Amino acid sequence: MEVQCTQMSTRKKLRSGDQQDASNGDKISDLPDNLLHQILASLDMKCAVQTSVLSTRWRNLWTSLPTLNFDLDTFLESTKGTAKDRDRFMKFVDQVFIHHDISNVQKFHLFYNEKRELLHKCVYS
After folding, report:
1. What pLDDT score was predicted for residue 125?
2. What pTM, to 2 d.p., does this model score?
3. Domain F-box: where (predicted)?
4. Is 125 helix (H, G, I), strand (E, B) or coil?
C-alpha cells in the first residue's frame, strides 16, 4: 500500500510540474509567422505538415509557407519504399498543393530519386 502512495505522490508532483510548465506558455508559438516560416522552411514538407498537430496556432501554418521542400527519401524513411509508397508521395505532393496558398510560394524543391537517378529540381520565383 505504501508503494502506491509513493507512486501517487510522484504522479501528483509530475502533474503539478506539467501545470507549471503550461503556465509558462509556449514561447515558440508566440513568434511571428515569418520566423516560424523560416524554421519550417528548413524541414521537409512532410515534417512541416506534421507540425500542424502541435497546437491550433500551428494547425494551418504550413499552408502559407513560402518554401516547399519535398524529398522522396525522407518521405519513404518509415516505409518499405515500394512503388505504392512512391505513389503515396506523389499524392501527398498533390494534396499539399490543393491546401496550400500557392500565391505565397517563393521556392520549390523536389528531390525524387527513383532507380538511383537523382532528379533535383529547384524553382525560384
Report:
1. 43
2. 0.67
3. 25-61
4. coil
Cell of 65: 509557407
Beta strands in the chain (DSSP E): 67-71, 107-114, 117-124
N-to-C CA span, the chain:
68
Task: Quote the number of domains for the chain.
Answer: 1
User: What is the pLDDT, as a whole number, of residue 20?
Assistant: 47
CB atoms < 10 A from the CB of 66, how many? 16
Ramachandran sector of residue 116 (left: φ over 0; alpha: ψ -120 to 50; beta: rest): left
Express each pLDDT in 87-99 by its tens digit: 899 999 999 999 9
Specify whether the CB–CB gap between 70 and 45 falls below 8 A: yes
Per-state percent for the chain, helix, strand, coil, to nearest 5: 60, 15, 25
- At residue 111, φ and ψ (nearest 5 deg) are -110, 115
What's the confidence (pLDDT) of residue 1?
41
